[in-house]
Amino acid sequence: MDNIDNIPEPRISHTWLEDVLAILMGTLMVSFGVMMLRQSGALTGSTAGLAFLVHYLTHYSFGAVFFVINLPFYYLAIRRMGWAFTIKTFSAVALVSVFTSLHPLFAHFDHLEPFYAVLFGNVIMGMGFIVLFRHKASLGGMNILALYLQDKYGIRAGKLQMAVDFVIVLASLFVVSIPMLIASILGAFVLNLIIAMNHRPGRYRV
Questions:
Q1: How does pLDDT run across 161-185, given as a tens digit for each residue?
Q2: What does the pLDDT look like over 117-153, one tens digit per residue?
Q3: Which pairs from 16-20 meet CB under 8 Å and 24+ separation?
């Protein structure tokens, strides 16, 4: 008799409502983590890290900078990942851009220890990324490139992003203090470790 445990389970797709709710929850988590980093004066990696650098140097709104920086990457998303992925990603980027401006209207920390803010903020962001990735969405920029290379060549998204994030964080040496730079590097490591451990090709059936 065949072992019933060896029979593969049917693949079940997410419904559109599940996708909408997941994108809302994922972007709320990521944007809250971004708020913690911004209030502590820290940075992170990926496209958000570039947006932080521009924000600190020019004082333009983080949300606006983050939205604009992502625009060139949608061409690659359409060509390589399809319209469904691109629409979800565009929506996620737009929501993070809006939520990062809305969170301070409802929450403000009178005291926020920098190392705690950076580490806990990146944990929240990492879990938000996983939610988005599981529903075939991303936050643009390096996320699009990382997911494409993972699907095309099997390069782990977390490892690629970790390498790029360290470069971006190190580039901020003249923007933040050495202690905050160290905290930002640790935070980027934590975020990408969460992604590397929880987002692997073939691990999930949906």
A1: 777 777 777 777 777 788 888 888 8
A2: 888 999 999 999 999 988 888 887 876 777 777 777 7
A3: 18/135, 19/88, 19/135, 19/136, 19/137
